[in-house]
Amino acid sequence: MRRQFITIKDIARELGISVSTVSRALRDAYDVNRETREKVLAKAAELHYKPNFNAIGLVQSNTHNIGVVMPGITNYYFSTVFTGIEEVAYENGYNLILFLTNDSPEREQRLIQDLSLSSLDGLLVSLTSPEDRHYGQVLENGIPVVFFDRVGGDVRTSKVMQDDYNGAFEATQHLIDSGYRHIAHIGGPAGLAFSRQRRQGYADALEKNGLALREEWVVHSGFSQECGQQDVEQLWKLPVKPDAIFAVNDRKAIGAMLALKARGVQIGPEVGVVGFTNDPVSGIISPSLTTIAEPAFEIGKISCELLLKHIARKHFEPKAVTLPGKLIIRESSRKHP
């Protein structure tokens, strides 16, 4: 037996008012008085009315679907961002469609080329590719785009990110204040904007303290734990080795710690390590990892809120929002226990 769905006609019949009045009340139209609107909302709740977004979309030319393009969902940072996005989307009656690029620029560009834009009202994007020009075509087709975390510089739209530069500066300054003088940086892909910002924060902290930046101590690669291990293997082939490592994220920092442990290096007293994310595992491993905590949940929420504003208002002025991180000091950066 098919389930019978409640419609606005049912609400109108129950209240003895017109269908158009019910429709305007549910849309919070200006020409419906407060008392009528409250009665309509109460009756809608009593009858368990749910709006038919497919039918609404045919009339209003929207789908109530938002696409989310991100490198992955299995790590703490992106799963937390997605939770923030989902909270705002759910509160506003939007569905999320997730597209994963697995940190592949080619996969990301192919995904966008093949995307069915007619099924989406907007896109939330964390870039894998250093280029963001392919999203210009999406905007030209009338689909709003908001970048988060890994943002581009060519497409003019809203962006939400953490303060990569100052977080990296603070992380490096902490290592210097802790007594380390030969600090390496294992970064993400060199072409990404946030990789450049974190490298610049690291470089400027060294310069401020009169320490030389040695190019051989700056390694750019991927974001995985395995990349962190490989970066340390590369650094430890050098004739002069660093006494501290600032990693672009916690996964790489943990990979670096594993590689150092395998070599019998004491983490903290011999080589300090600082990450960037505050993944829950950073407080569990031994020694625990000093890191920069990122406001992942807030980034997700604000990104989705901005996208909904772009969807609602055709000429909404793009905004750039930068949220601060926080230094969390643990055992991995204690030179003198």
Automatic annotation (TrEMBL):
Tagged with keyword Transport: no
Signal peptide (residue range): none
InterPro entries according to UniProt: HTH_LacI, Lambda_DNA-bd_dom_sf, Peripla_BP/Lac1_sug-bd_dom, Peripla_BP_I
PROSITE patterns: HTH_LACI_2
Domain of life: Bacteria
Key words of the record: DNA-binding, Transcription, Transcription regulation
Stretches assigned to the HTH lacI-type domain: 6-60
A Gene Ontology molecular function term of the record: DNA-binding transcription factor activity
Protein name stated in the entry: Transcriptional regulator, LacI family
Species assigned in the record: Siphonobacter aquaeclarae
